[in-house]
Amino acid sequence: MSSVPVPVSAAGLPGFRNPTLALRERVDDLLRQLTLDERLAMLHQYAPAVPRLGVAPFRTGSEGLHGVSWLGVATVFPQAVGLGASWDEELVRRVAEAVSTELRAFHHHRPPAVGSPERGANSLQAWAPVLNLLRDPRWGRNEEGYSEDPVHTARVGEAFCRGLAGDHPTYLRSAPVLKHFLAYNNEDDRCVTSSGLRPRVLQEYDLAAFRPVVASGAATGAMAAYNLVNGRPCHVSPLIGTELRRWAEPTGHELFVVSDAEAPSNLVDPEHYFDDHAESHAAALKAGIDSFTDHNEDSETPVGRLREALERGLIDEADVDRAVRRQLELRFRLGEFDPDLDPWSGTGPEVIDCPEHRALARHAAVESTVLLKNDGLLPLDPARTPRIAVIGPLADTLFEDWYSGTMPYRVGLATGLAAALAPHGGEIVRVEGCDRIALRSRTTGELLGKTSFDVTDWGGGASTLRAADTGRYLTLQDDEGLAAEQDVIKAWFVKETFRFEPAGEDTVLLRNVFTGRYAAVDPTDGRVTVTAETPDAAERWQRELLRDGCAEAREAAATADAAVVALGNHPMINGRETEDRADIRLPEGQEALLRAVAEARPQTALVLMSSYPYALDWAAEHLPAVVWTSHGGQETGHALAAVLLGGAEPAGRLPQTWYRGDDPLPAPLDYDIIKAGWTYQYHRTTPLYAFGHGLSYTDFTYRDLLLSQPSVDPYGAVDVTVTVANGGPRPGTEVVQVYVRALDARYEAPRLRLADFRKVRLEPGESRELAFRLPAEQLAHWDVATGAFTVDPGRYEVIVARSADHPVLTAPLTVPGAAAAPRAGTGRRIRAVDFDDYEDAAIVDATRTDGDAVTPTDPARPATLLFREVDLSGASAIEVETAREDVRAAGGRLEVRAGGRVLAEIEVPVTGDRYAWTSTTAELAAPLHGVHDLSLTLHGDFRLSAFRFGATD
């Protein structure tokens, strides 16, 4: 390729250096000049420099989810779930703008914190936002998503992308990358679990969060997810091409798709999807992975695998060029080759944690605070409650999560309240409410660590122990010893959590959660190590209670005019990347502390600072006030103080459903939100707090819901207007939510579905008419019979609500037309996954590259697929496409029924491989006429990809 003549501009510059040329020409020119080895090398995360062309090294990916992270001190904004709770697109755009501005400063002025400077400056490619939907509140990475709803997530995600990218017509401030494609909502065994997505869930839910953001042109790339979807790893998913890239085509720019860390290697081990790495890397490249984040700075290993794939004919140069072209386009758009024209090249280091960003961080924390319950306790009046007890493990503590930046300072709740109360002569009493204990060895009589410890219960039996004299956490050291030396818990491997296991009166065993081993004492030298594999080999520790945390909290509450109990999670413990929560219960110790304080001081408000929802059943019933915030960053204390004392409105609304403690949640790996009953759309029992819920300090009323027309055709739109008024005594913020609902649907329709929303601030007595444009496509569902979105004729409702469970006004809307025709069943191939309902079936991959099939979840139990209202007129035979791997397994049999009548029973032949397919034809017991409900029952261990009814020869 380097032998092709190189265009040169009139100024003597190579074509790729000429900013007057079209972007495509510049990219093609540079690509032509690169050798094959240089192009292959660019497929790794660390693309090396090409000195002969003056091309600098390039690295992919800086983390910027709610602030620049891992690179040093930077402004830390509320977690993504908190930004989602703001329901404020303009605010989210401004936050992202601040993040990308600071990222520019790190790029230009700070050495890389990860990897050597020779591997490139800090990347301007921002690996954010996360568009994975918060289907299951137990997900360990719940804090990283915006919402359980695809419309809400897409709107907030697009705003974040626009803030990152900037508004220049040519150059990007930073390059947003959407994470993680696709259906990634569990951590436990995430690299080998498969998210089963029936077509309706795929199209209406998971893809719906990504589709609008990509189509808008706001995103520049995407990251594939660790998990599998329908049995196929996301890194070789055909959806990268058929969906992601197709959506981007009208924007004029291609998406630059990156792998997640080490995921390309995972394709061989632990997933065992391919036999060797050359084959797996080739498949990933062909599927659309443009950059391999693998083996850290060791480029040679992944590049060597790709070179081997090329030599074996598994890929060709066109595959390589396609990926490199996408990378080069992005680098041109980031201004790398036009530093004099790049509008952000002069960004200075002073923007990092600047006063404007501090103020924005405080504002964002206020806007994301949600008032869940208030019986009149809030806002607190400093004149009536001059002495406030602030109690709990998060009373004055702020935590960083894995994707947080390093906070430049920390204003905790007690500190913020003290500062706000000071002008009023108020007083704060701070009490953590944790037990202080000493652990004395029964063998030596020595105190563990020669100090006492403050113990905090984080749930699931996991506790942290902080040395009373230094405040540092007890941690497991590399030599298996124990020392209280950790200031902050923030590492990939958390070694600072322990379990106390009873071993007699006032005696416990100390077990490290990370290793599962117990603390033991060497009787010869007294050294404590975490080496005991069994309780019998573990040291017995006398647990001495030096301070009763609940008693101390009760005393503080009893002497105060009001109490604020600050509970929640530590973002690195019991729910984090690689670890899901087992349940949604509040930690037992924290629940006990809350009840003790409320008993002593009924005027108690719970402030929950958490990355995810909790079941707060007792608090919701017994406390006068409950407030939730995510981990809100460096300004959390100032923001919460403003809300609690009435200086600011609690402007947030819940971005996900908060379920009751006695409401059994579906299995974590049940991704079928329709059948399982996930989210406000399909959950069948009343939640504790609904999606969109949030109270105000003022009173809003709604009136005059009007539609511009009573009916709309399937390709039209209707204008919706509603008037909102603030009838209360103070300014307030309301989130007006517009939902739609299908009545008398022929499919299992959502209870209701968010169509639009608007956040408005109104002065006392002010009213405002809001207008919404409702396209008919908002009423569409994925029709499995036609394989397309369809707006069915029939009756619908447009609902204006304050939350998913608090409708205010409803208006009818009709889509005219004839009822949908039955599914055509004769002479047409019907995919097995296009069922209407099912029992005990799993969706799996038909081949390694494309297609879905269905198999029994457990071969010992039959799986049934239901296809409703199928026109089988003229059918006298059925042809089925099956694969059956093992002749040693129990026989495979497919039973076909219509209206309860057996039409055919087919013995499924062995094909020898799960991807080896064969067709089998059987005559029906009698020819069919008319429309029938059809069921296919799979007995045994085989796969069904499709079937077809026809006439016999």
What do you see in this structure?
- The protein is built from 19 helices and 46 strands.
- The chain is an alpha+beta fold and 953 residues long.
- A 6-stranded mixed sheet has the order 10-25-24-23-11-12, with helices on both faces. A 6-stranded antiparallel sheet has the order 15-14-13-22-19-18.
Question: Topology of this structure?
Answer:
Layout: H1 23-33, H2 36-41, E1 46-47, E2 58-59, H3 80-86, H4 89-109, E3 125-126, H5 150-165, E4 175-181, E5 194-195, H6 199-215, E6 221-224, E7 228-229, E8 232-233, H7 239-248, E9 256-258, H8 263-266, H9 277-287, H10 300-311, H11 317-333, H12 355-367, E10 370-374, E11 387-391, H13 413-421, E12 427-431, E13 435-441, E14 453-457, E15 463-467, E16 473-476, E17 482-486, E18 498-502, E19 507-512, E20 518-521, E21 528-532, E22 541-547, H14 549-558, E23 562-568, H15 588-600, E24 604-609, H16 617-622, E25 625-629, H17 636-644, H18 673-676, H19 679-682, E26 700-707, E27 717-726, E28 732-742, E29 753-762, E30 767-775, E31 781-783, E32 788-790, E33 794-803, E34 806-815, E35 823-824, E36 829-831, E37 837-839, E38 841-845, E39 852-856, E40 863-871, E41 877-883, E42 892-898, E43 901-908, E44 918-923, E45 931-939, E46 943-950
Parallel strand pairs: 3-4, 4-6, 5-7, 6-9, 11-12, 11-23, 23-24, 24-25, 35-40
Antiparallel strand pairs: 1-2, 7-8, 10-25, 13-14, 13-22, 14-15, 16-17, 18-19, 19-22, 20-21, 26-27, 27-30, 28-29, 28-33, 31-32, 33-34, 36-46, 37-40, 38-39, 40-45, 41-44, 41-46, 42-43, 42-45
Helix pairs in contact: 1-11, 4-5, 4-12, 5-6, 6-7, 9-10, 12-17, 13-17, 14-15
